[in-house]
C-alpha cells in the first residue's frame, strides 16, 4: 500500500496477477464443459470465484518452496508452475498427466515444482506441510512451505494438532485458509461456533490475520509478509481469506442449501472483475490488452485439451508400478554391529538399533509421545534424549494423526524420521495419515513421491492393560498396498531390522510385541545386518509346520518342544515380514511337512491367519495331507483380569492340541 492507503503496483505485477487468475478461471470453465462431455470423470471441484487466493499466495513463492493443497487445487497447481498440458492430461486420466493419470482432478502432483497434492481427505495435507517445514528447518534451509485448506478442514482435529506442532517448533509454514463459507452444503454457522478461523489459530499460537479473499492485492500483500516471516525464522503464519465459490461444491451438487441471490451478491465481488476494473481505471491495462490476454489463454487451453486428447492411457501392464519402490540391493550393512555375542533384552536391542541410526545417519530423528524426557512408555528410547538432544529425540504432544503426518512430511522433505506410536490401538488415530497418505502417495503421484518413514509401535496383550491397549491390529495394516509391515521377534531382528527399514524407500511399520520387551537371549552379532524380506525358519521339523510371528513365536516354539516329546517334529516358521509376505518360505515348508497350524494373536475373523491359510490353499493345496488349522485370540475385546486375558490369547496347549488334531487327520 502507498502512503495514501491506495495499492501501488507496477503494470507487470498487476498484469501477472490478472493473467494468473484468468488462467485458473478459464481452465476450470473448460473443465466444466469437458465434464459435461464426459471427458473428465469422478469428482470435479472448481474454485471459480476464489482465484484471488491461489494467485495472491503463489505470486511470491519460489520454485523450490513446497505447496500442499486440497482437492480444489487446479488453480494452485497451474500457478505453482505445472504445465497446463500436464494438468489437463491428468484431468483426463491420461498417462502424460502430472500424476500419470492415476490421481485425476483431486490428486495433482508434481515433484519438479514441489507440488505435493492434491489431497482429497479434508485436512489430510495439513500435517504433511508441517513435516515438510520441519525437514527444512532441521536441514537449515530458509524457505517456506505453503498449505491450503478450507474452513471445513479447520473443524478437523488434525488442523489443531498440526498448527500446534508448527507453533511449538516455530516452523516455516504458511497456512492459507480458504474460507468460502461452506463445507459442501454446510454453511459456516453450522460448521463453526465462531466462524473466524484465524481466532482459533491465533489461540493455538500461530500469528494470524483475516483478509478480503476477493482482493488479490490484499491476499498477495498478506502472503508476502507471512512468507517473509516464515523464511526469516519467525515461525508459522495463518492467513484466513474470506472468499466464496460461485459454482457448486462439485459437479454433483444441486446447491439446495443456498439462496441464488446470495451467490449473485458474491459475484458482484468477483476478484477478476475487481482487479481488471481497477487496472482499467488506473491505466494499468490498455485498450485491447485484456482481449489479447484472453486469446493467449484460450490458445493455451486449446493446446492443453489437444494434448490430453492425444495422450495415451496408462497401459494395464504398468498398473502395479510404483506401489512400492524396490529395496536397495544389497542393503548396506549396519555401521556399528556388536563385536561379541551378549545377553540382550529385546528392549535393549531396539534401543541399540535406534542409537546406531541416530549416530550414523544425520537425517534420522525420533518423534513421538514421551520418547524423550520420559524415556519412552516402554523405555525403548531410554537415554537417547540425553545423548542426542531434543531436536533429534523429539517429544510430541498427544497428536497421533498430526505427528505421524508430520513424520511423513519430513520424510518427503529429505529426513528419515522414526515415529513412535505408543500402541497399535492409538495408531488408529493416525490411520488416515498412514493409509490414505503414506501408503498411497507413491502410486497416486505416478511414482513421484515416496515416503521413507519408519513407524514403530507396541502391539499385543499380556500386561493386563485391557481392551484399549492390548489388541493385535497389525493385520489391518497388512491389508494396505504400499506398506511394509515388520514384526521382529528375536533379539537379532529387534537389533538390526531398523537399519534395513531405514533404507526402504517406502513407509515401514514395525510392530514390537509388549510381552517380548523383557525377553532376553544371546544376541549374535550380524555384521551384514538382517533382511526385511524373508520369513525365518526358527526350528526345523518335517511332521508339521507351525506358522507364527511376534509374541506368539515363543509359544509356538514351546509347543514344538512338547510335540517333540511325543515324537512329532514341528517346523516353526516366523513370518517376520507381515507385508509383503514371503509366501515361498511358507509353501516350501508345507511342501515338506504337508500339514500346518497358524498361530496369530489377532482375532480370527478377517485376520492374518486366514490370509496365510488362503495363500496355502492357493499355492500348496495339493501338498496338504490335512486341513489347515489356526489358533487365534478369542473374539472379544481383551479383558483386564489375568485369568480372562490369558483365556483370550493363544496358549501353548491350544497349539499342541491343534497340531495333534491336524496330525490325526487322514488324507
Ligand atoms: C475427512 C473427510 N471428510 C469428508 C469428506 C467429504 N468432503 C469433501 S469436500 C468436503 C467439504 C470441505 O469443506 P472445506 O474444507 O471448507 O473446503 P471447500 O470444499 O469449501 O473448498 C467434504 C465434507 C472428505 N473428503 N474428507
Ligand atoms: Mg469451505
What is the fold's blueprint, element by element?
Blueprint: H1 11-36, H2 51-58, E1 67-68, H3 74-80, H4 84-92, H5 126-138, E2 145-150, H6 157-168, E3 173-179, E4 182-183, E5 186-187, H7 188-191, H8 197-204, E6 208-212, H9 216-231, E7 237-242, H10 260-267, H11 271-282, H12 289-310, E8 342-345, H13 346-360, E9 364-368, H14 384-392, E10 393-395, H15 400-412, E11 416-423, H16 424-427, H17 431-438, H18 441-444, E12 454-459, H19 474-478, E13 484-486, H20 491-503, E14 508-513, E15 520-523, E16 536-539, E17 544-548, H21 553-565, E18 570-574, E19 577-579, H22 583-593, E20 596-603, H23 608-620, E21 629-633, H24 642-648, H25 652-664
Parallel strand pairs: 1-2, 2-3, 3-7, 6-7, 9-10, 9-11, 11-12, 12-14, 13-14, 17-18, 17-20, 20-21
Antiparallel strand pairs: 4-5, 8-15, 13-19, 16-18
The structure holds thiamine diphosphate (TPP) and magnesium ion.
Region (Disordered): 327-346
Keywords: Oxidoreductase, Pyruvate, Thiamine pyrophosphate
Protein name: Pyruvate dehydrogenase E1 component subunit alpha
Q: Which residue ranges are poorly predicted, with pLDDT under 50 across at least 5 consecutive positions? A: none
Strand percent estimate: 5-15%
The CATH topology of the largest domain, please?
A: Rossmann fold
* Helix coverage percent: 40-55%
Radius of gyration: 28 Å
User: Looking at this structure, what is the CATH superfamily of the largest domain?
Assistant: Thiamin diphosphate (ThDP)-binding fold, Pyr/PP domains
Bound molecules: thiamine diphosphate, magnesium ion
How would you sum up the major sheet? Answer: 7 strands, mixed
Question: What distance lies between the first and last C-alpha atoms, to the nearest angstrom?
Answer: 88 Å
Amino acid at each position: 500500500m502507498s502512503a495514501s492507503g491506495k495499492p501501488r503496483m507496477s503494470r507487470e505485477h498487476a498484469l501477472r496477477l490478472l493473467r494468473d487468475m484468468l488462467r485458473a478461471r478459464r481452465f476450470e470453465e473448460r473443465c466444466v464443459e469437458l465434464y459435461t462431455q464426459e471427458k473428465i470423470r469422478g469428482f470435479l471441484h472448481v474454485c471459480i470465484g476464489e482465484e484471488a487466493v491461489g494467485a495472491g499466495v503463489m505470486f511470491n513463492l519460489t520454485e523450490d518452496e513446497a505447496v500442499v493443497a486440497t482437492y480444489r487445487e487446479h488453480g494452485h497447481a497451474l500457478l505453482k508452475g505445472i504445465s497446463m498440458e500436464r494438468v489437463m492430461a491428468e484431468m483426463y486420466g491420461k498417462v502424460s498427466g502430472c500424476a500419470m493419470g492415476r490421481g485425476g482432478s483431486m490428486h495433482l502432483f508434481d515433484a519438479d515444482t514441489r507440488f505435493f497434492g492434491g489431497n482429497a481427505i479434508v485436512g489430510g495435507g495439513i500435517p504433511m506441510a508441517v513435516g515438510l517445514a520441519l525437514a527444512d528447518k532441521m536441514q537449515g534451509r530458509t524457505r517456506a512451505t505453503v498449505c491450503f485448506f478450507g474452513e471445513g478442514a479447520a473443524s478437523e482435529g488434525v488442523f489443531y494438532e498440526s498448527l500446534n506442532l508448527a507453533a511449538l517448533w516455530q516452523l516455516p509454514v504458511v497456512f492459507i485458509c480458504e474460507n468460502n463459507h461452506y463445507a459442501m452444503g454446510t454453511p459456516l454457522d453450522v460448521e463453526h461456533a465462531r466462524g473466524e478461523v484465524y481466532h482459533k489459530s491465533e489461540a493455538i499460537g500461530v500469528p494470524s490475520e483475516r483478509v478480503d479473499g476477493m482482493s488479490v492485492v490484499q491476499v498477495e500483500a498478506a502472503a508476502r509478509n507471512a512468507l517473509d516471516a516464515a523464511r526469516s525464522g519467525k515461525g508459522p503464519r495463518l492467513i484466513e481469506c474470506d472468499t466464496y465459490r460461485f459454482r457448486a461444491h462439485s459437479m454433483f451438487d444441486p446447491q439446495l442449501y443456498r439462496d441464488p441471490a446470495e451467490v449473485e451478491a458474491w459475484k458482484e465481488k468477483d476478484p477478476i472483475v475487481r482487479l481488471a476494473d481497477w487496472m482499467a481505471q488506473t491505466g494499468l491495462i490498455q485498450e485491447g490488452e485484456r482481449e489479447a490476454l484472453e486469446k493467449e489463454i484460450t490458445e493455451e487451453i486449446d493446446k492443453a485439451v489437444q494434448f490430453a486428447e492425444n495422450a495415451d492411457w496408462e497401459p494395464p501392464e504398468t498398473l502395479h508400478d510404483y506401489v512400492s519402490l524396490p529395496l536397495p540391493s544389497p542393503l548396506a550393512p549396519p555401521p556399528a554391529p556388536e563385536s561379541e555375542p551378549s545377553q540382550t533384552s529385546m528392549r535393549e536391542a531396539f534401543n541399540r538399533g535406534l542409537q546406531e541410526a541416530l549416530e550414523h545417519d544425520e537425517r534420522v530423528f525420533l518423534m513421538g509421545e514421551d520418547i524423550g524426557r520420559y524415556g519412552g512408555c516402554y523405555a525403548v528410547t531410554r537415554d537417547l534424549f540425553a545423548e542426542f538432544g531434543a531436536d533429534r529425540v523429539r517429544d510430541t504432544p498427544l497428536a497421533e494423526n498430526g505427528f505421524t503426518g508430520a513424520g511423513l512430511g519430513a520424510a518427503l522433505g529429505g529426513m528419515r524420521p522414526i515415529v513412535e506410536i505408543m500402541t497399535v490401538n492409538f495408531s488408529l488415530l493416525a490411520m488416515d495419515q498412514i493409509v490414505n497418505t503414506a501408503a498411497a502417495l507413491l502410486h497416486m503421484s505416478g511414482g513421484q513421491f515416496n515416503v521413507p518413514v519408519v513407524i514403530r509401535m507396541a502391539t499385543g496383550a499380556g500386561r493386563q492393560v485391557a481392551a484399549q491397549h492390548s489388541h493385535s491390529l497389525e493385520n489391518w495394516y497388512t491389508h494396505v498396498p504400499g506398506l511394509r509391515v515388520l514384526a521382529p521377534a528375536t533379539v537379532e531382528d529387534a537389533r538390526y531390522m531398523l537399519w534395513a527399514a531405514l533404507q526402504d524407500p517406502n513407509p515401514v511399520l514395525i510392530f514390537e510385541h509388549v510381552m517380548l520387551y523383557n525377553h532376553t537371549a544371546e544376541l549374535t552379532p550380524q555384521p551384514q545386518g538382517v533382511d526385511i524380506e524373508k520369513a525365518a525358519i526358527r526350528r526345523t521339523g518335517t511332521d508339521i509346520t507351525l506358522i507364527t510371528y511376534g509374541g506368539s513365536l515363543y509359544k509356538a516354539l514351546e509347543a514344538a518342544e512338547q510335540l517333540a516329546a511325543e515324537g512329532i517334529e514341528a517346523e516353526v516358521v516366523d513370518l517376520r515380514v507381515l507385508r509383503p509376505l514371503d509366501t515361498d518360505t511358507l509353501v516350501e515348508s508345507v511342501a515338506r511337512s504337508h500339514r500346518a497350524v497358524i498361530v496369530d494373536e489377532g482375532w480370527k475373523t478377517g485376520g492374518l491367519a486366514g490370509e496365510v491359510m488362503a495363500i496355502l490353499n492357493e499355492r500348496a493345496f495339493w501338498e496338504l495331507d490335512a486341513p489347515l488349522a489356526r489358533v487365534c485370540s478369542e473374539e472379544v475385546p481383551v479383558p483386564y483380569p489375568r485369568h480372562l486375558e490369558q483365556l483370550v490369547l493363544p496358549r501353548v496347549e491350544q497349539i499342541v492340541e491343534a497340531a495333534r488334531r491336524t496330525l490325526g487327520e487322514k488324507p
